[in-house]
Each structure stands twice: as structure tokens, then as C-alpha cells.
Write a sequence for this structure.
């Protein structure tokens, strides 16, 4: 899967995804410090983890190749 | 007219390779799923207060950073940029080694505060041990790819070994994305 913008474009996209992953992880860790109902805490934790995993699967592992075939 | 046929065959082969690797990754995810579910079965959501939260967060950052460098290496291979491939593969291996050092410290503390004779110790050491073994195999594969890359093995259009090794490394990262909150954060 080659994106427009060449290698510099691909590497730039990598930085944005990385920044999002770091931000999500900090928010995840920050949940520990916030007093909130346990149910809400768990829902947020699962949501953040799924978002993290999806970013890696979609942008870094190119899972869409499976159905796009490129 | 042999050339178009050869290109078609190479594309088909790449597609089969990718499908095979994804099936392997899927099967591996069941293994990690079993380890993670055992945490809730044996220990519920309890965790010991002695857990080193900063170490857990630190090695998570290290592994996420190694995913960025692995991605950069793979894109460099796709574009036939050999220096970028070599540089980023070396960085990925370096970060992987830092992660391993973090796990060793993690284990040293675990044996002190929650040894294998406790339920949490069993879960913690089994899960991080299983993951650590995958990190070590990933490092071995990446090192081999780096060796091949330095010998000019990969060119534009011929990068499947890099892609396969990097995908495996990302999978190790995805597994950690779920292990980290399961062991360190959940309550």
C-alpha cells in the first residue's frame, strides 16, 4: 500500500499515529488518578485500548490490505 | 509475454504470504487472550499496590516508539530507501532491547513483592514471560532482517521479509496494548 506523498508522506503519517498512541496511553494512565465510577472507568479503559489497537492495526499493520487487496 | 505472468505470480504470492501471516497472528492472539482471561478468572480485578506504575508506563512508551521506527523501516523498504530501512531497523532493535531490560527489572520487583507462589505473581510472570518471549523472537527476526538488509538483499518491490518481520513486531505491540491495562491499570 503506497500512499501519495512518497516516503516523506508515509513517515509523516507515522508521527501522527505515534502521537495519537502516546496521547491515548497518557489518558489511559490518567484515568487511574481520576475518581470516577468503576463501571465508567472500565468502559473508558476498554474504549481507549480498542482505539490504540485499531490505530496500530490499520495504520502500522495495514490490515485493510486484507479486503482491499493492494 | 513471460514477464507480466511473473509479475502476476509475485503479486499473488505476496497476497498469500500476507494472508498466512494474518492467520498466524490470529492464532497467536488466542494464546494471549487465554493468558489475559486467566487474570480475571484467578484474580478478578485486584492488583497489588507494589506494582511499579511508572515502569509499566515507561516500557509501554518504549514499545510504542519501537512500533513507529518499525513502521518507518517498512515504509523505507517499500520505497527502496536502504539507509532509512537500516537506520530504523537498528532503532527498533535498540528500543526492543530497552524494553527487555524493563521487563527484567519488572521481574526482579515481581519476585520480591508478588512471587510466583501468589495468584497475581503467577499471572504476572506468565503473561509478561509469554510476551517477553515473543519480544525476543521478534528481536531475533529483526536482527536477521537487518543483516540481510545491510547486504543489499531488499530492493523496491522485494520487501516481503521486512514487511512480515515488522508486522510481527507490531503484533507484539498490540498484545502489550492489552496486557498493560490488564496487569497494571484495571480495577
Amino acid at each position: 500500500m503506497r500512499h501519495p506523498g512518497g516516503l516523506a508522506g508515509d513517515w509523516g503519517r507515522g508521527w501522527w499515529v505515534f502521537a495519537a498512541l502516546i496521547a491515548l496511553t497518557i489518558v489511559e494512565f490518567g484515568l487511574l488518578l481520576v475518581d470516577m465510577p468503576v463501571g465508567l472507568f472500565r468502559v473508558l479503559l476498554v474504549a481507549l485500548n480498542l482505539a490504540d489497537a485499531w490505530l496500530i492495526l490499520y495504520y502500522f499493520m495495514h490490515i485493510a490490505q486484507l479486503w482491499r487487496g493492494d | 509475454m513471460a514477464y507480466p505472468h511473473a509479475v502476476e505470480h509475485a503479486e499473488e504470492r505476496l497476497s498469500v504470504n500476507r494472508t498466512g501471516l494474518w492467520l498466524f497472528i490470529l492464532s497467536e492472539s488466542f494464546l494471549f487472550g487465554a493468558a489475559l482471561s486467566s487474570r480475571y478468572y484467578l484474580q478478578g480485578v485486584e492488583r497489588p499496590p507494589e506494582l511499579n506504575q511508572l515502569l509499566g508506563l515507561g516500557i509501554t512508551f518504549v514499545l510504542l516508539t519501537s512500533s513507529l521506527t518499525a513502521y518507518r523501516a517498512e515504509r523505507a523498504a517499500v520505497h527502496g530507501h536502504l539507509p532509512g530501512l537500516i537506520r530504523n531497523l537498528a532503532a527498533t532493535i535498540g528500543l526492543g532491547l530497552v524494553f527487555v531490560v524493563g521487563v527484567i527489572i519488572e521481574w526482579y520487583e515481581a519476585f520480591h513483592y508478588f512471587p510466583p507462589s501468589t495468584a497475581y505473581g503467577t499471572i504476572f510472570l506468565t503473561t509478561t514471560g509469554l510476551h517477553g518471549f515473543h519480544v525476543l523472537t521478534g528481536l531475533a527476526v529483526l536482527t536477521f532482517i537487518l543483516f540481510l538488509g545491510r547486504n543489499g538483499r531488499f530492493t523496491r518491490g522485494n520487501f516481503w521479509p521486512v514487511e512480515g518481520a515488522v508486522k510481527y513486531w507490531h503484533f507484539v505491540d498490540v498484545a502489550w496494548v492489552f496486557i498493560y491495562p490488564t496487569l497494571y491499570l484495571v480495577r
User: Anything to note?
Assistant: The mean pLDDT of chain A is 92. Residues 6-30 of chain A form the longest helix (25 residues). Chain A touches chain B at residues 2, 6-7, 10-11, 14-15, 17-18, 21-22, 25, 28-29, 31-32, 38, 41-42, 45, 49, 52-53, 56-57, 59-61, 63, 65-66, 69 (CB under 8 Å).
